[in-house]
Amino acid sequence: MSGYLTALVSLCILSPLLPAAGGAVCSEKETLLRQMPNAGAQLTDCLMECTGMTYVRKIQLQDEHNIQFKDSTEGDLGEYCWTTELKCTVGETFQRAYVVLPVDTSAIGHEMLEVKGQTAAAAVTLQAHRSHTVISDHCGLRYDVTPHFNVQDQEAASWFCVRVAAAGDVLGDEALKCPPYLVTLWRRNRNLSNQEGGG
């Protein structure tokens, strides 16, 4: 019952927010980024539960970030991918991007998994982000991937993928409750809003 309630509350609160993803500082006069086609993927239970828990935490912390959640797309075998081209939203500035691995954190710690990030240029080993964020700790392990989503520097759309490998007795992908997802944080630019409203 509580799972159903969480999913229902999450859906009601977030349905208008989920399709949108913010961009570099944007105004209506600029088209910095192209909108990517919607793959039509279904939202996972893990993503919906994390969304609900994160918005409760956001309210508790009185955090002012706009938060966007995005499910992954399957890449090569064992890879989970996202486009690095994020849709531009008027008056917002991109702040941070995290890949969340939905695992039972009471049973699986960051040291038990090896997570590789893959861009068109190179592969990198990702380190778990251990500091608290507005993202609920119960969502799973968080990996800060902000440099790979530096939307102001990109000239064309590309992809960022992660691969979860085993460390010790843990079986990589089998440790995941659901596919990983991307959480991006955005800051509303009040000055830009005021200038546009007054102009």
Salient structural properties:
alpha+beta, four-stranded antiparallel beta sheet, 3 helices, 9 strands
Q: How does this structure look, described?
A:
It contains 3 helices and 9 strands. The protein starts with a helix and ends with a helix. The relative contact order is 0.24. The strands form 2 sheets. Strands 2-3-8-5-6 form a 5-stranded antiparallel sheet, with no helix packed on it. A 4-stranded antiparallel sheet has the order 1-9-4-7, with no helix packed on it. The chain is an alpha+beta fold and 199 residues long. Helix content is 20%, strand content 27%. The chain is globular.
Brief sketch in words of this structure:
The protein has helices spanning 2-14, 45-61, 190-198, and strands spanning 66-71, 73-74, 79-83, 92-101, 113-118, 123-126, 141-144, 159-166, 181-188. The termini are far apart.
